[in-house]
Amino acid sequence: MAVITGGNSGIGRGIATHWVRNGGKVVLAARRHDRLLEVERELRDIGGEVGVIVCDVTREEDNQALARFAVEKFGGINLVVPAAGVVRNSLMLRTDRATGMVAERMTLADFQMLLDVNLNGVFLTVRECAEKMIDGGCKGLICLISSVGASGAAGQISYASAKAAISVMPKVITAEFFRRDIGQRIRCVAVAPGAVATPLLEGMGEQAVKSILDQVPIKRLIEPEEVASLIAELYRNEALAGEVFHIHGGLRFGSRG
Ligand code: NAP
Questions:
Q1: Which of 56, 196, 211 for mutating ligand 1's site (highest number of atoms within 8 Å of CB)?
Q2: Which residues, other chains included, contact 250 with Cβ-Cβ below 8 Å and sequence gap of 6+?
Q3: pTM confidence score
Q4: Mind listing the pLDDT tens digit for each residue in 166-204?
Q5: Of 12, 34, 52, 128, which one's alpha carbon is 20 to 30 angstroms from that of 214?
Q6: What share of the chain is helix, strand, coil (3-state, %, to 5)?
Q7: Dist. CA 199–CA 189, nearest whole Å
Q8: Which one of 11, 196, 246 would you pick to mutate in the ligand 1 pocket, going by the greatest count of ligand atoms within 8 A of its CB?
Q9: Contact 246, 212 (CB under 8 A)
Q10: Could you give the CA distance from residue 172 to residue 37 in angstroms, rounded to a whole number?
Q11: Which of 19, 74, 159, 177 is catalytic?
């Protein structure tokens, strides 16, 4: 049974579809109820057992309700994918090209907003679901979603900081679970996608996507289904733990020749 936040769109939706096609049950969480119901219908049409719950991952009580709902509905949790995320590109300090002086500053509220969803939200979802997994004697995987953006691109100080923090979490969680003898039962990993064909990427604008694609040796976006199939393999192969797995079509190794 899988808990997927951000399950009504993009990568989360792709993971849910893959999981259901392979016989799994899912609980999907996000803020927009209508989009949750839409994906629920899609998954039921292909024979899935699905539960949906409105959840703002930045709210502690929403994450508690999500984990409780998943256990009440399906008895236990085996896969947790906190895929809820947002991106807004802007410079920390934007200078005026004519004067060279600072014309605009990123506000603390803007910086904080991305951390709230992409970092604090992940912590809350994982803490709540992992507690239920531990206490319920469940076996399975926590799979975080980092990004190649964790390596740091202009305009992404908040997003990249959050994703860099996510990248270290599998090591921390694996070490903590090892210490308490939980590591053989519950593993933690992360996937770090490059540019994936989802609404999040569309929000970055055509020009930004084009300049990313210029750097991708496979010359196309990654499909959500491809990320989902990597996660299914990470779930299946119990030798994989405590690591970040990149999926980006060769992005950082590409040579223009
Ligand atoms: P997406 O299609 O825009 O989906 C984002 C999801 O997050 C939606 O389901 C949205 O649903 C949910 N969400 C946003 N804020 C939320 C909140 N406060 N509480 C609960 N749910 C919230 O984006 P995506 O591309 O699938 O991204 C999924 C994850 O992959 C993100 O962590 C993103 O950083 C990561 N990623 C994406 C790419 C890419 O190229 N697409 C690359 C690397 C990493 P509601 O709006 O209904 O809440």
A1: 196
A2: 216, 217, 218
A3: 0.97
A4: 999 999 999 999 999 999 999 999 999 999 999 998 777
A5: 12
A6: 50, 20, 35
A7: 24
A8: 11
A9: no
A10: 35
A11: 159
